[in-house]
From TrEMBL:
SUPFAM superfamilies: Folate-binding domain, P-loop containing nucleoside triphosphate hydrolases, TrmE connector domain
Superkingdom of the source species: Bacteria
GO biological process, one term: tRNA methylation
Cofactors that this protein relies on: K(+)
Main location: cytoplasm
The protein, known as: tRNA modification GTPase MnmE
């Protein structure tokens, strides 16, 4: 077998496991590349059948080893170029699941001459063969890693091309402005009028950006796209919500309730959760990393102290803090201290959702005083904090209201209250390029407004057009592509 190093951009027959290696009913092995169907036929029990199969059809047979031994009973889906995911001849082998079966089929393919695929190489080839633009290629990865239904919906929007269309639309506007600008410059040169040499012509060109309203519209649409990124990131990467409060306030109970499973130890002894424990939950479609912390209180126990210290660090990183008041005890000095100490931390009071837990035992006092008073500690509430939400981690009262509040706060913090799924940016790469295009365009508009000549404005417009071309991949370099696709998983 010829040995050469695999690289992005070749058309070698490649194979990879597309499903997880583990005990399962089925496993899927993907193959693609030049002559890949011929190569596959060499290790298949019915080679003529496979070679004669039309595209988008399925053949049944055995994968056969070098010594003619039966490796596995499989179904092979045949795809013929160019109507395939990669644009090349491809086949998906559906074999038995389980580590041994899938591995044996894969090894047989390797010894037949297939090489292991690189990360994201199937999608890379699809991109190279014009099957999808870069935003769609990136959305494939987003889709695979989507943690919630909503994250999936947003990725699917991009996969179906909403972002690519919006980028192309904005780019068309810019190209039109650029064309008008260059036409003007050419025309002036043809006329033998040098803008620089003749002050009156320079004045004429100054401030006269052709199709200025189009450029302004393009800038507005780029800014909307840039803003969408925070919201998209919230759905793709999620947020950190930390449950805090005094020992025994009911933090672990709330954590478990939100998880809908008993994951952390719930007891009556203060300080049981010595360190923090966390889990991902979906709150109204937003992936939320929920953390249950050690109770915040003065302690002499070194292990417990460490837990409390870590909890504080976690609080500083939190997007939201669900602060529980033990309703049975009311607001105590320790609660009050927590809020007073906020002033010394980077925690903003807007990040706090105040909860009155154990509302099944004691309801929220009708009148909550703005300041802690020694006479009525139960009714004291620090200023700037909205009234507490009554909940019961035992009966579930107030939990729907709480999840709605969490979602609303996180969406508000991500800058966009609307839950509309429209064209949005899915990756940091896209965001950088949109920012760069917007910056160039903004500078072009500012210069034009300041009366600067068009020959210094045109290059800025061109920079903007190029940045947008890079987003969809019309303009791209090999190393950018390699870096991007190497973050994909094998078999994608
Ligand atoms: N009645 C009532 N008891 C609760 C509620 N939430 C927690 N508890 C009880 O309060 C005690 C301490 O709860 P836990 O979740 O361990 O508190 P943590 O120390 O803040 O984690 C346990 O006995 C819980 O069953 C609630 O909403 N109502
Ligand atoms: Mg606890």
């Amino acid at each position: 077998m010829a040995l050469h190093s695999a690289e992005y951009g070749d058309t070698d027959p490649m194979a990879a496991l597309a499903t997880l290696l583990g005990e399962s009913a089925l496993a899927i092995i993907r193959t693609s590349g030049k002559n890949s169907l011929e190569l596959l036929a060499e290790v298949f029990s019915r080679p003529e059948k496979l070679l004669a199969a039309p595209g988008n059809s399925v053949v049944h047979g055995w994968i056969i080893g070098k010594d003619r031994s039966k490796i596995d009973d499989v179904l092979i889906s045949i795809y013929r170029a160019p109507v395939t995911y990669t644009g090349e001849d491809s086949a998906d082998i559906s074999c038995h699941g389980g580590i041994a079966a899938a591995k044996a089929v894969l090894e047989t393919l390797y010894s037949a001459g297939f090489r292991p695929s690189l990360h994201g190489e199937f999608t890379f080839r699809a991109f190279m063969n014009g099957k999808l633009d870069l935003t769609r290629a990136e959305s494939v990865m987003e889709l695979v890693s989507a943690k919630t239904g909503r994250a999936r919906e947003h990725a699917v929007q991009r996969l179906s091309g909403t972002l690519a269309e919006e980028i192309s639309g904005v780019k068309e506007l810019l190209v039109q402005v650029l064309a008008g600008t260059e036409l003007y410059l050419d025309y002036s040169e043809d006329d033998g009028l040098s803008l620089a040499a003749d002050p009156s012509d320079a004045a004429e060109a100054a401030g006269l950006l052709p199709d200025r309203p189009l450029a302004e519209e393009a800038l507005k649409r780029l800014q909307t796209l840039a803003e969408s990124y925070r919201r998209e990131r919230l759905y793709a990467e999620g947020a950190l919500a930390v449950i805090a409060g005094r020992p025994n306030a009911g933090k672990s109970s709330l954590f478990n309730l939100l998880l809908k499973e008993d994951r952390s130890i719930v007891t009556d002894i203060p300080g049981t959760t010595r360190d923090w424990i966390e889990a991902w939950v979906s709150i109204e479609g937003i992936p939320v990393r929920l953390a249950d912390t050690a109770g915040l209180h003065a302690s002499e126990d070194p292990v417990e102290k460490l837990g409390i210290e870590r909890s504080r660090t976690l609080l500083e990183e939190a997007d939201l803090i669900l602060y529980l008041i033990d309703g049975a005890e009311g607001i105590t000095t320790e609660d009050h201290e927590f809020f007073t100490n906020l002033a010394d931390s980077n925690i903003n009071t807007t990040q706090i959702v105040l909860l009155w837990n154990k509302a099944d035992l004691v309801s929220v006092p009708e009148k909550i005083l703005p300041q802690l008073t020694t006479e009525s500690p139960v009714q004291a509430l620090p200023p700037d904090i909205p009234a507490p939400l009554p909940v019961s981690a035992r009966t579930g009262v107030g939990i729907p209201e709480l999840t709605r509040e969490i979602a609303a706060r996180l969406e508000q913090a991500s800058g966009d209250g609307s839950r509309e799924v429209s064209a949005g940016l899915g990756t940091a790469r896209q965001k950088e390029l949109v920012d760069s295009a917007a910056a160039s365009l903004n500078e072009a508009l500012t210069l034009a407004a300041a009366g600067e000549p068009l020959d210094i404005i045109a290059p800025l417009l061109r920079e903007g057009v190029n940045a947008l071309g890079e987003i969809t991949g019309e303009v791209s370099t090999a190393d950018i592509l390699e870096t991007m696709f190497s973050r994909f998983c094998i078999g994608k």
